[in-house]
Inverse folding.
């Protein structure tokens, strides 16, 4: 089973790996972040289904999009990493809009509240 292969050597048990995955999902869905955050969003998409909508979305959020990295994974599939900085609620709005675009798959996030790095 695929889960067993992933768990082997990385987690102490299947239950622990599943619990960790659920905790991560709940953190993301609850979206407890407030204030200013920095976020990296990674996703892949079918360019024949979503390129124009993704371009439009990026232009709607110019105030929070810092940078993008675009990679051609195959002839039809592209991977993008978008660096965002701004109000957590606006970034959440961007991500929710991104997930609604047909052809966008596997959206992953890395979010850092700026309040947690202010003293570093």
């Amino acid at each position: 089973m695929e889960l067993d292969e992933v768990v082997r050597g990385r987690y102490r048990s299947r239950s622990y790996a599943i619990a960790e995955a659920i905790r991560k999902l709940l953190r993301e869905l609850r979206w407890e972040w407030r204030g200013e955050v920095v976020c990296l969003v990674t996703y892949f998409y079918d360019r024949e289904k979503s390129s124009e909508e993704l371009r439009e979305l990026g232009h709607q959020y110019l105030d929070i999009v810092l940078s993008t990295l675009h990679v051609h994974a195959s002839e039809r599939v592209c991977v993008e990493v978008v660096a965002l900085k701004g109000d957590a609620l606006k970034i959440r709005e961007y991500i929710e809009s991104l997930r609604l675009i047909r052809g966008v798959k596997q959206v992953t996030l890395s979010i850092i509240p700026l309040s947690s790095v202010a003293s570093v």
Observations:
- The mean pLDDT is 86.
